[in-house]
Amino acid sequence: MTTLTQINDTQVSIINFKSIPVVTTAMLADFYATDTDNIKQNYSRNKSRFIEGKHFFKIVGEELKKFVGDLKSLSNSTIQISPKVRNLILWTERGAARHAKMLDTDQAWDIFEQLEDCYFHRQEILAKTHKSERTPLHDAHTMLVAKTKHLNSSDAWKLINQRFGTKSIDEIPYDAIPVAVEYVHHLIAMYSNADKNQLSEDKLQNMHALATHMIWVREWWREYGAALKKLNPTAYGRVTNHFTDGSSLAWWFVKPDQKKQLEECVKSFDWMTGNYQQKLPI
Question: Structural domain boundaries of the chain?
Answer without folding.
Answer: 3-126, 131-268
